[in-house]
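Task card 7
Instruction: Convert sequence to structure tokens.
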Amino acid sequence: MQAGPNDAVDCLIIGGGPAGLTAALYLARFQRSFLLVDSGESRAAWIPESHNFPVFSQGVSGQRMLALQREHVGSYGVAPVPGRVVSLARSGSGFEARVEAARGGGQTLRARTVLAATGAVDCEPAMPDLAAAIRQGLVRYCPICDGYEARGKSVGVIGHGDRGLGEAIFMARSYAQDVSLLTLGMGMALTEAQRARAAQHRITLHEAPIAALEMEGGKIAAIRMGGARTRFDTLYAALGLHVRSDLARGLGAAHDDAGALRVDAHNQTSVEGLYAAGDVVSGLNQVVVAMGHAAIAATAIHNRCISGL
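Output:
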């Protein structure tokens, strides 16, 4: 059951994306007291259409997916609290969180456990008309999710360094034979071995900045780089993520070099009572993985509560 904002709850869920909403569903069905604080910034909301999500064979947008999840948990009386958790601290054997409300003001929440489902933010490429291109599905962020739709097409991977080259090779090996790496003006100081790998997969390097994105009929007509016009069917951004793990790391939670949290088999972090699910966790960033994390964590939280820990 969802508790009032002044009660000490069994769990505070931070984040209203696929992971947070899945955890809310499980905890509601476990009849636990909890609150879900949602800043409304789920990375999933940017998905224009995914055909990689089970059940939706005709594809589903991130906005639609989240709306269905909110409707589902709403049937159990769950109403996310609009706002942002700005601080998280230990309080006795539990936690205390300060929440800034979306419409101003704030409140302090107390919880026995916390589930961080705070996600991550894509590092956006410096290019014109980016938001429109993302909305139309012309610039994508996840080749695992929708690289299948790019099979046999001309693909531009936006990135540099090992990450950029690695994503370009992944696309060339898995889906497309016409792959280019667009470095946005960043020089690619490739080793002999890296150049050999790029050549092996016939990856073309474009090291000039993107000056303009030409659209035609809802598709990319051409990209202007260094005075030249080059055509691509789709673009993938491979610039990495900013993991929103500050609250957990502030409590000393273990994390990898990118800031993603390390968790155990129950999705508990190295901080007792602090759990994590979704893109904030080190590993594969996928909606179905986030939901799996949340199911595991919520079940562990329920078991923790009934055992009196």
